Amino acid sequence: MEEDIKEKLPEKLKIIELDSIHKKYNKNKEAVGSVEFNFDKDESEGTKKYFSLIGPIIDTIENGKLLFIDEIDTRLHPLIVEYIVNLFNNKTHNAKNAQIVFSTHNTNILKKEKLRRDQIWFVEKNRYGESNLYSLLEFKGVRKDASYNKDYLDGKYGAIPNIDFIFADGDINGD
């Protein structure tokens, strides 16, 4: 499918190569020039993902849109994920109330300082592969000082993967 898209692009777009320029330092940590990197070959997968998200994020925030990102934490540092979420939760940066909906395995983002209870949703799969979606807001009696990420990992909110089947015939050491 990706090849089909490339074939439909105008010739000028097919030959674009993106380079990035990084400062070069000597042993005294003084800038002594720069070095050019081929973006596709030399940059990390995290850097490439971040740059691929910048355009959609800016467009979404500037125009009050809705942005879906599957597994936002894949290849991104947790602080970058937190920064992106903060952009959407900041009224100054997000004056048009744009929204981001994302899935993640990064429980560090499950903090009351970062997300309200109505912003946190869980997906729990049953043994038949059926998914159930529910909000943290649905849980009654969640204390104001609760640690959402710790409580989630402790299984208080469900949506914990069932990994028992992996070691069904013994423990992790093979006993």
TrEMBL record:
Pfam families, per the entry: AAA_21 (PF13304)
Gene3D superfamilies: P-loop containing nucleotide triphosphate hydrolases (3.40.50.300)
Keyword Nucleotide-binding: yes
GO molecular function: ATP binding; ATP hydrolysis activity
Domain of life, source organism: Bacteria
Domain ATPase AAA-type core: 42-110
Keywords: ATP-binding, Nucleotide-binding
Alphabetical list of PANTHER family matching this protein: ATPASE AAA-TYPE CORE DOMAIN-CONTAINING PROTEIN (PTHR40396:SF1), ATPASE-LIKE PROTEIN (PTHR40396)
Protein name: ATP-binding protein
Organism this protein belongs to: Geotoga petraea
Classification of source organism: Bacteria, Thermotogati, Thermotogota, Thermotogae, Petrotogales
